[in-house]
Amino acid sequence: MKKSIFSLSVLFFLAFTSIKAFADGFPIGSVLEDFKLKDINGVEQSFTSLKGKKGTVIIFLSAQCPVVKGYNARINQIYADYQSKGINFIGINSNSTESLEWVKSHAEANYKFPMLIDSGNVLADEFGATVTPEVFVFDAAGKLVYKGAIDNSRTGENITENFLRDALDALLNGKQISKTVTKAFGCSIKRIEGQQKSVNTSIKIQRAKTE
After folding, report:
1. Closest to 92 measured CA to CA, from 49, 127, 66, 48
2. pTM recorded for the entire structure
3. What pLDDT does 199 receive?
4. What is the C-alpha separation between 21 and 175, in angstroms, rounded?
5. What is the pLDDT of residue 21?
6. pLDDT level of residue 207 (50, 70, 90 thresholds)
7. What mean pLDDT, rounded, does the chain reach?
8. Contacts 24+ apart (CB under 8 A), 71-79
9. pLDDT tens for each residue of 19-46
10. What is the fold, at CATH topology level, of the domain defined by 2-209?
């Protein structure tokens, strides 16, 4: 597996740059060095300042998606179970149709982990995130080790596959993750498409490539 450094900084033209990265995807084994986005209070935050000592879960969320609402209790329980083990969660809202006030109100009422605003869906495009909820798990070094669904139940009933918990348990125990990619399901991320809108942000990824 080879790695090529993919570094993006300031002034994105979404109609070109982000669409290309979105098409390329985000392969397992890629390394997220850093990104900077503002949180719901307008304060700039970075991946390096928010990541966990043992690993990090980045989860794309929505303030209005019914699937996300059905997952909130499970998300919060997983966060509570793993935070003390060195795993941090970072919420990302990339939906262009949701106002800051709406996102802030929803986040403050439902989550204890930070929520960042992905204006122009730049981070979602770089990650290849398409729906909410969708998770990306990184180890302590920032290497992507799992991406996809939280589990296999929209309602929380009859769960037979705990994808996120299994990935975190394997990561913490130094074992190989049996399923590194699953298909996330939920509400589509409401993107800004085909507009020459510039967004100030910074993302640095070493994107893994397979032969």
Report:
1. 127
2. 0.87
3. 58
4. 30
5. 44
6. confident
7. 88
8. 71/133, 71/150, 71/156, 71/186, 72/110, 72/111, 73/156, 74/150, 74/151, 74/156, 75/111, 75/133, 75/150, 76/110, 76/111, 76/112, 78/150, 78/164, 78/165, 78/168, 79/111, 79/112, 79/113
9. 444 445 799 999 999 999 999 999 999 9
10. Glutaredoxin (3.40.30)
Which residue has 């980045």 as its token pair?
A: 58
Per-residue model confidence (pLDDT) at position 208: 86
- Report the C-alpha gap between 150 and 194 in whole angstroms: 31
H or E element, residue 71: helix 66-83
The 8-class DSSP code of residue 203 comes to E
Which residue has 């709406």 as its token pair?
Answer: 102
For residues 134 and 59, the answer to whether their CB atoms sit within 8 Å is yes
